[in-house]
Here is the input.
Amino acid sequence: MSNPVFFTSAGSLDAMAPGQPFVLEGAEARHAVTVKRLAPGESVDIVDGAGTRMTGKVVSATSSGLEVECASLTLEERPEVRLVLVQALAKGDRDELAIETATELGIDAVVPWQSERSIVRWKGDRAARAHAKWESSVAAAAKQARRAWIPEVRAAVDTAGLSAAVEASDLAVILHEDAVRPLRTVLEAWQGSAGTGPREILLIVGPEGGISPREVTKLCDKGAATALLGHHVLRSSTAGPAAVVLASDILGRWTVTGP
Here is the structure.
């Protein structure tokens, strides 16, 4: 069984070395002590959300914090090709379900999209609260999946902002039921012609009412491609995670090498 994971602030593990003690404090420590009831001798992972993972054993678990002796420190590199889910705002928390599941599956960043047909609207104070809720959702999902990286929740965009992001990306794919080419075909063709170095793919998912034809035209004019996930029409909460699974397999992100 994998070790339980607890988060600390980015950079706080940088100076750690085997044998050194680390004290986890705050809400994460309280959860470890009072909810998980960790005891001395148990193994845990402490991650900073930015790729650094410390594995160690609990030395003490008290109301003041969780003390862990560092056994090893590893840095998990970002994948060369990063996947970004552009998720249209959707009612019934379907958008949150999408980003949570995509986080567990390995998404690198998410972008809230205020599309023309989105019933949900982020305005004023609600926008700040909703963005913070998305950040909390992806952090909890990353913890559940034992990830060392917490996906970035980027600023919300409207279609004009998304058009600019599409133009700046290496590849942008609109998941659309009327597309002709399968997503696999689009990704494999891009993979064969792409260059080296860090690259980024936007996976664009519309709201429950679908992406409007006008939006599809605008985004395609900026370089986006449309792609078909399969024979069935998926919900807004399902399409993104399904695309992450397929893209991760095609790009070799899930390749596991043995010892």
